[in-house]
Specification:
The protein has about 350 residues and is α+β, with helices and mostly antiparallel strands. The chain is built from six helices and 13 strands. It has three domains: about 100 residues, Efflux pump adaptor protein, beta barrel domain (Elongation Factor Tu (Ef-tu), domain 3), CATH 2.40.30; about 60 residues, RNA polymerase II/Efflux pump adaptor protein, barrel-sandwich hybrid domain (OB fold (Dihydrolipoamide Acetyltransferase, E2P)); about 110 residues. It is about 40% helix and about 25% strand. The strands form three sheets. A six-stranded antiparallel β-barrel has the order 1-9-12-11-10-13. The protein has a four-stranded antiparallel beta sheet with strand order 2-8-7-4, with no helix packed on it. It has a three-stranded antiparallel beta sheet with strand order 3-5-6, with no helix packed on it. α2 packs antiparallel against α5 and α3 runs antiparallel to α4. The protein is rod-shaped and about 140 Å long. About 20% of the residues are buried.
């Protein structure tokens, strides 16, 4: 039995040696030949997004739930910055409050002007005339008192008449002084009255500013030039958690790619890129514009069932060419594939 195994092993060894001796030798490698390498670059999944981002406009009133009264735009309509888009049901009430505040402000201003003037021009003029009349009567009384005082020593005048004339002089002088004080009161307001009128004016101005701000919260205006993408609420509805509508500027489109954190050192702004659009044969041109500042979990859902779903990626924004932007103008949010060829090495400055 052992002899049979020995003869079998010897025959196998002889056959292997014969095959090695007769097998053709591999062709010699040509000098300088290099094995073909797989194409290098950075690939990632991305989504189409306006460069302005998609703005979701909500009810300006915050937590106050109000019914939508008027909707002045439609989906796909182009709007300008500051254009009125919608009004809520409390707009008329807030406008009335604002007009009431305007009337209160006008009243406060008129009151302040009256306090500053302190008296009407006719009242001031009448008071000055009264002062002039009292001054004339005082002068006549003074002259009469001087004549009677001069006649008393000679016996031609009585002392009682002289004393009466002196009293009239003092009486007219006192009345003139009082009239002059009244004129000063009419011409110059009291500081406390003026301060009170100014405080009421400031309060009226603040109330008007608040009323106008409340009225503005009952309306939605476009924060920028753009296009209405979607409308979530119609007249008669209450705005929900989705907001009122979505607005974006579609004149410039980006592709937001989730690039693996290990590929980020191979990218820099200005590199050309190619965008693979589902359903389109040709590839769209794009340019790397900016690299993200944070690393996070990927937000793009791939179709590979064995791909890592917790990969760490960085958002990279690429600007689409004008032709690609025109093609994808109605495809915001569409998933695309991004390929950035390998960049040439940077030349160090001397």
């Amino acid at each position: 039995m052992s002899r049979r195994w020995t003869w079998g092993a010897a025959a196998l060894a002889i056959g292997a040696g014969a095959w090695w001796w007769t097998a053709p030798a591999p062709p010699p490698t040509r000098p300088g030949a290099v094995a073909a390498e797989a194409p290098r670059g950075v690939g990632a999944l991305g989504r189409v997004e306006p460069a302005s981002r998609i703005r979701t406009l909500n009810q300006p009133g915050g937590m106050a739930v109000t019914r939508l009264e008027r909707l002045l735009v439609a989906e796909g309509e182009a709007v300008r910055e500051g254009q009125l888009l919608a009004e809520f049901a409390d707009a008329a009430q807030k406008d009335a409050t604002a007009r009431q505040a305007e009337a209160a402000l006008a009243e406060a201003r008129a009151s302040l002007e009256r306090t500053r003037a302190a008296g009407r021009p006719s009242e001031i003029q009448a008071q000055r005339a009264r002062i002039a009349a009292l001054a004339a009567q005082e002068e006549i009384a003074r002259r009469d008192a001087a004549r009677t005082d001069a006649l008393v020593p000679t016996g031609a005048g009585s002392a009682a008449a002289a004393e009466r004339n002196r009293y009239l002089t003092l009486q007219f002088a006192s009345q003139r002084a009082q009239a002059e004080a009244d004129l000063a009161t009419l011409s110059t307001p009291r500081p406390e009255d003026l301060a009170l009128a100014e405080a009421r004016l400031g309060q009226a101005e603040a109330a008007l500013a608040k009323a106008r701000a409340d009225a503005a919260l009952a309306r939605v205006h476009a924060p920028m030039d753009g296009t209405i993408l979607r409308i979530f609420a119609r007249p008669g509805d209450q705005v929900g958690s989705n907001g009122l509508l979505e607005l974006a500027d579609l004149s410039r489109l980006d592709v937001v790619a989730d690039v693996f954190e290990t590929d980020l050192p191979r990218l820099r702004p200005g590199l050309p890129a190619q965008i693979i659009i589902p359903g389109e044969a040709a590839r769209a041109a794009a340019t790397v514009r900016e690299l993200g500042w944070t690393v996070r979990r990927t937000t793009q859902a791939g179709s590979d069932p064995v791909a890592a779903v917790d990969s760490r990626t960085v958002e990279v924004r690429l600007t689409l060419s004008d032709e690609a932007a025109a093609l994808l103008r109605r495809r915001s949010g569409m998933q695309v594939q991004v390929h950035v060829p390998e960049a040439p090495p940077l030349v160090a400055a001397r």
